[in-house]
Amino acid sequence: MITRTLLLSALLGARLGVAAPTADLPAHPDQLQFPPLSYEPPQAAAHRHVLKNGVTVFVVEDHRVPLVDVSITILADDRQEPAGLLGLHSATFDLLSDGGSQAHDAAWIEEETAYLGAYLESGTDDPYGGNLRLQTLTKDLEHGLELAFEVLRTPRFQADRLREWQDKRLASFKERNDDPERLERMEWRRLVYDDQTFRPATAASVEALTPQTLKEWHARWTHPGNLLVRVSGDVTPKQILPLLEKHMKGWKKGSSSFPNPEAGYAAVKPGVYLIHKPINQTRVRCILPGLDRDDPQWHAAWLMNELLGGAGMSSKLLNRIRTQEGLAYSVGSQLEERTFGPGIFWAGLQTKVESTQYAMSLLVDEYRKMAAGEIDEEALENSKNQLIQAFPTWFASAATIANVLADEELSGRSQSNPRFFQELRDQVARVSKADVQAAARRMLQTDNLIWVLVGDAQAVQAPDAGHGLSLETFGPLTRLPLYDPLTQEPLPLD
Amino acid sequence: MPQFPRTGLRLLLTLLALGAAQAALPVKEVMLDNGMRFLFIEDHTSPSFMGAWVAHVGSSNEIPGQTGLTHLLEHMMFKGSKVIGTKDLQKDLDLIARQEELKERIRQRSRTLREQVRQGRAASLKEAQEADTLCQRLEAEFQQLVVEQRDNMIPNEFDQIMQKNGELFGNAFTSDDMTAYFNVLPANKLELWYWLESDRLTNPVFRELYAERDVVYEERRMRTESTPTGMHEEAVNSIFWQASPYHWPIIGWASDVSELSMAQAQDYYHRWYGPGNVTGIVVGDFKTDEAVQLARRYFGRMEARQDPPPVVTLEPRQIGESRYVGAADVNPTVNFRYHCGGFKHVDSGALEVIASLLNGDTGRLQRKLVQESKTAVQAYAYYERKKLEGAFQLEAEAAGDISNQELEAALDAEVLRLVTEDVPERELQKVKNGWLTNAYREQQNPIRAAFTLIENAGMGDWREQEAYAKRIQDVTAADIKRVAGGLLKPENRLVTWWVRKDGAAPSPEAAALATLPAELQGPARMALAQIKQVGDPAQLAAMRAQLASQTPEDEQEKAFVGFLLQSVDARLEALKAEGAQK
Prior knowledge:
Strand order of the largest sheet of chain B: 1-2-6-3-5-4
CATH class of the largest domain in chain A: Alpha Beta
CATH architecture of the largest domain in chain B: 2-Layer Sandwich
Distance between the termini of chain B: 49 Å
Radius of gyration of chain A: 27 Å
Mean pLDDT of chain B: 90
Low-confidence stretches of chain A: 1-22
Number of strands of chain A: 12
CATH class of the largest domain in chain B: Alpha Beta
Number of helices of chain A: 18
Mean pLDDT of chain A: 92
Number of domains of chain B: 3
Oligomer: heterodimer
Helix content of chain A: 40-55%
Strand order of the largest sheet of chain A: 1-2-6-3-5-4
Number of strands of chain B: 11
CATH topology of the largest domain in chain A: Cytochrome Bc1 Complex, Chain A, domain 1
Number of domains of chain A: 2
Shape of chain A: globular
Number of helices of chain B: 23
Largest sheet of chain A: 6 strands, mixed
CATH topology of the largest domain in chain B: Cytochrome Bc1 Complex, Chain A, domain 1
Structural class of chain A: alpha+beta
Largest sheet of chain B: 6 strands, mixed
Shape of chain B: globular
Strand content of chain A: 15-25%
Structural class of chain B: alpha+beta
């Protein structure tokens, strides 16, 4: 006992009595010297393979742990869903992994993969259509691939699993208008996109789906002419390619091909669009047209967004609206990078009802300043340095390398601009203050703003006399209805 | 389902277990002389690293009246230091001192105003302050000093330095148990991370505290007050935790947040951010020797401080079931939340295995509630392994017209199975296999590995991540029965019913279904779904004729057939109406 007490006090003494070392540390981080870091992005040629049937396969090795990731993209265009069957695309690709195969029912496949500690899932979170993903221990790769190709080539789309999917979807629809964030996300899309791009499924369109309609949608898109495979992890091309050849054997190319699914814009007139939700904070989103990612001004616009609201705490909107004024927790902007066609440029914030108009006016003010050329040289250099130095994180793992290379291939950029990644850092470095201003003048046209507000409609319309503002300051005001969450018919305004 | 031959099974298990032994994170631990612990994992996959430090302090270390202080302090740590964020430090400190004098006078005045609120003479403290001329005058003077200070500051300089050096991911979080700060930087910027982080940990200056408090209040509005269930969840949480400091929200009670002060923040920092109460974590592309040297050089300069006081309160045993009904903009849902052991508890492995048995594509909740009885559209279990205590949750969202009562009964049936039936060997092994491959996934991703260390170090023992993995593999079927039997009892839980606020009346179908005996409701619902898919009136007419020709054997069958007939008729009517519309 005595020993322990002594030990303890000795320990405490050591910890409390220690004098801080008087290290001669640099007085400011700008005095630090950093070793150079050279980094060359991976080359597609080192990882790209083509199977006998023409399917492209990217293989990126990483042998640190015995895991293999196989991801198969099925090119498919959801804009071609029949009007009465909206939801068909996601039902088909969600149920690829969860709906059984001709040889095995869904539960058997699920139990088998779970027992192996593996993962076999499918869905539509791929911008090119459907996706089937297998992750397995290396030793189970062959078995895992058998199951993956079983569901890919001969899915069963079990009726009970479709019913389950429908029930879950319908339940989710019922909550469409509940969460202000989800409501805002849905409604700004309705305002900006055309009818082919924004097509919300309804209870009726989901109920109309049958296993047969899913089988037809699957058959239409799923064939070797429409596939791309990414493999990463503990496997060599020599091991994986023969396995893929084996599973593709005898599979004929179909006729469907993948059109460039450019988003269709049919934006409403500029102005303020207000959606009523009785909450004590207003969700504000400000929308403008974006740019095509191949646009010559893309890099300048990218930096403009970083300076305005894309770079977190370092950006203008955050500094003004959050740090200085304390008006919002979350403030930011984004220049959407779409693979096909231009995206939008948006800025958003959430602030208490009373400060809504003032926060909006600060946002407009920052847009004006940027277009007028009030651009801080040092801030621009900081942003450029960030993008250039963080460049290697785009390729941080074998899986991300495979994804990036596949994306270049599928989008066509590996053909149209094969040195895109090699030149990216130089292109960013070349952007000048004048370039950013030119992009800002082109993009930040404050007469064209589309504002989407979700909040207490009556309270938010009260003029902000203290700042000499009213909602109409920002453009003509339109009250928007809520839409019935199941039928998507507009509900009467209350 | 094919069974693996016994020997094959054993071989497979051996292989997996072997893998688990290799999958432990390769951590190097170093203790500095001042008591600060550092953990390093070298991983050269990408030319970058994640640097993090976690202070072993969370909202559960707060005291009443100052809730939300841990989180506000997290925000203040981004406001610079004696070097970062200012043009003239002395001027800065003078301005802060003058601001505090004014704020103190406002606080004195607010004591009287708060009494007005308590006596029902003002709706809120804010309203009373706005109506009070003295408060308004002091506030105006204060704002002038804020503007004056702004000219002397370099706003967000900390973030700007990180940014220009290639940082993309930096942030921080506060939980009940810990506060953590993390950044991902290019590999050549290792020393920068040490410089900036040791600087703000050693010499922080809390600038713009009151504007930041407003920011936190907006965060509270966004996360808690404007979401469909946020305010209810805050209430549910404080009902569940009776005495434990988990009782109050991490972001703080609204009336506390608006009163937090500079003095409180500074005092809290000194008490909790000493080197002995912080763990540094560096994972990625560096040489460990160099990283250790830098740790000594930069973080070694901090003076050791007295150990902070531990939380003494132990949650008392719950002795009666609590129930909460939350009417909100949500689908009907039932949640059970049971008290249980937390971090390092001997039964934590069993609780994690129970959650895994219930969860996922092949989990019992999916199989039984979603697929067999069709009482839920989705359901999950969650073991909250906190530092001081634990909680075990079961939650299910009602399918179609299922009532919360039926849903509760279905969840209870699953709880009963855990208590009364032995888990089959294969099912148990399936869950354990999932955890084994999970360990590899963790090792594969340096950032994920770093967060695992943050979480475990933050709760007090980074080595628990490995011990926990082993504890999960050691769980037996008997453990599960024992732990479930001991904890998953009504008197140990809070039951929450979520109901839709506008409470739409049940459909005629639902009303008809409800009249059937419970065991027939499942089949009836399936039959109804099939009938609804038929679009051909002739086919429906044939179905009707077949049903009408049945001679029911008992009352139950009669009710069932009657329900189906009714449903076929309703479908025929609906088709007719559709035709008329076209």
